């Protein structure tokens, strides 16, 4: 079993009818999506990475993690880098500090 499959299975386990907040697992759900962003980017599957980044951004509105801004900005910066938008990537990395 590869890492992406493990992450995908974990997402299924922490979700209840698409509402992870109901179980108090929004932060875990968010972390799994951010992990998938990184894994899909490494494999060059940018469309899948973008989908998980968008879901991460939605979940971030409900999560209260101290490291969340850093993790989210880092994932966003990597996506901008993959798109060739280095200026925006650098701005996001500066915000992550």
Report helical residue fraction: over 70%
Strand tally is 0
Average pLDDT reading: 84
Structural class: mainly alpha
Main sheet specs: none
Order of helices and strands: HHHHH
Spatial extent as radius of gyration: 13 Å
Uncertain runs are none
Query: Count the helices. How many?
Result: 5
Shape: flat
Question: What is the terminal-to-terminal distance?
Answer: 35 Å
Beta percentage is under 5%
Written description of the protein model:
This protein is an all-alpha fold. Helix content is 72%, strand content 0%. The protein has helices at residues 3-14, 26-42, 46-60, 68-82, 86-96. It is flat and about 40 Å long. The termini are far apart.
Key terms:
5 helices, 97 residues, mainly alpha, single chain
Topology:
Blueprint: H1 3-14, H2 26-42, H3 46-60, H4 68-82, H5 86-96
Helix pairs in contact: 1-2, 2-3, 2-4, 3-4, 4-5
């Amino acid at each position: 079993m590869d890492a992406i499959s493990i992450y995908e299975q974990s997402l299924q386990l922490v979700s209840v009818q698409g509402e992870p907040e109901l179980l108090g697992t929004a932060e875990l759900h968010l972390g799994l999506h951010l992990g998938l962003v990184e894994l899909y980017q490494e494999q060059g599957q940018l469309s899948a990475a973008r989908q998980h980044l968008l879901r991460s951004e939605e979940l971030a509105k409900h999560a209260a993690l101290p490291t969340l801004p850093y993790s989210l900005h880092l994932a966003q910066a990597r996506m901008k880098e993959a798109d060739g938008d280095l200026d925006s990537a650098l701005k996001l990395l500066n915000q992550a500090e």
